[in-house]
Amino acid sequence: MATPQNLGDNDGRFGNQLFKLAAAYAHSRRMNEPCYVKEWNKAKYFPNLTEMVKLGYQQRNSRVFKEPHFYYTPIPLEPALCLEGFFQGEQYFEGHENDIRQLFSPHEPVRLNEGTCLHVRGADFLLNPPAYTRLGLDYYQRGVDHHGCKKVDVFTDDIRYATKLLSGLSVPFEIKSRPQTPIINDFMAMRGYSSIITSQSTFCWWAAWLSECREAGHWVFPLRAFEHKSLIRNTLTPSSAILL
């Protein structure tokens, strides 16, 4: 048995929750045992999840494995583990990528978009500057230049900040995010673009990783995502992305 310890909103936002679940599911496959998820309010977005994990069940008599670092550390090959941590990195589900894509398949096919989108993370990232690299206009401009796009669609959790930040961009942009709409709307929309420029947010990381642009080499990711010394040796950087 394997289970992520917490999938509530107080224990990480949407992208973090996907990493926790992906790590737990991959571990359960390696151990040939069920993956248990006590509860998750985002499960309704992924129809395959109810068939692939034991949703609504609580694993008992399990040992807690606490992630010791913010970078990849192999999970012990032991049965009945309860995983505590963020587990941010492709290494945690290496060899089970197709399983994870199936796990996070949506109800309806993703609507494809031949354009380019970018993601700006504001809000809490701006309140904790020692931890996260502040991505400036220069980063997004390099991404636009790399993709050679004539316009770009913008997704963000901070519309005011993103509008101000991108005001000097060399191509027109359109804010696609809307206040008070479910986050799954932006997530599914981003998954359909043929090229993407992401922030270091795990929310857009997953949108890009689950999209076709990942395999096509059309994913731009920041070369330096974090500033704090405890985070620099992170394994969030995707193997298939262009680092700028």
SSE arrangement:
Layout: E1 2-4, H1 14-30, E2 36-37, H2 49-52, E3 54-55, E4 63-66, E5 81-84, H3 97-103, E6 113-120, H4 124-127, H5 137-147, E7 152-156, H6 159-165, E8 173-175, H7 183-191, E9 193-197, H8 202-209, H9 213-216, E10 219-221, E11 242-243
Parallel strand pairs: 1-5, 2-3, 4-5, 6-7, 6-9, 7-8, 9-10, 10-11
Average pLDDT, rounded to a whole number, is 89
* Share of helix, binned: 25-40%
CATH architecture of the largest domain, by name, is 3-Layer(aba) Sandwich
Strand order of the largest sheet: 8-7-6-9-10-11
Q: What's the total count of β strands?
A: 11
> Mind describing the biggest β-sheet?
6 strands, parallel
Return the CATH class of the largest domain.
Alpha Beta
Number of separate structural domains: 2
Shape: globular
Distance between the termini: 40 Å
Could you tell me the strand content as a percent range? 15-25%
Given the helix and strand composition, which structural class is it? Answer: alpha/beta
Number of helices: 9
Which radius of gyration do the C-alpha atoms yield? Answer: 18 Å
Which regions contain 5 or more consecutive residues with pLDDT less than 50? none
- Helix/strand order, N-terminal first: EHEHEEEHEHHEHEHEHHEE
